[in-house]
Amino acid sequence: MAKSIEEKIEDHAKAELKKLNLKYYTKTEIINESIDEALNKAPSKKGGDGVNRHKHTKIHQIQI
């Protein structure tokens, strides 16, 4: 199956960060325990219980 444009961009960005020896976080990697705990406890947009992790961790993947 062909990769989506998003996956291609993500792969390219990761490769560039690796070349520059910059730390980055994957979608499932915990950045900070308190952030992880807050995301797991926060109510979802549809009113469900927590586990907002994946949508929010993408925003915080890159740390310089």
Explain the overall architecture:
The structure is a single chain. This protein has 64 residues and is mainly α. It has a domain at 27-64. The protein contains three helices and no strands. The protein has helices spanning 5-19, 33-41, 53-57. Residues 55-60 have low confidence and may be disordered.
Q: Number of helix segments? A: 3
**Tell me about the biggest sheet?**
none
Instruction: Report Rg.
Output: 14 Å
CA-CA gap between termini: 33 Å
Number of strands: 0
The portion of residues forming beta strands comes to: under 5%
Region (Disordered): 41-64
Biased composition (Basic residues): 53-64
Which key phrases capture this entry?
single chain, about 45% helix, about 60 residues, mainly alpha, 3 helices
Brief write-up:
This protein is an all-alpha fold. The protein has 3 helices and no strands.
What secondary-structure arrangement, pairings included, does this model have?
Elements: H1 5-19, H2 33-41, H3 53-57
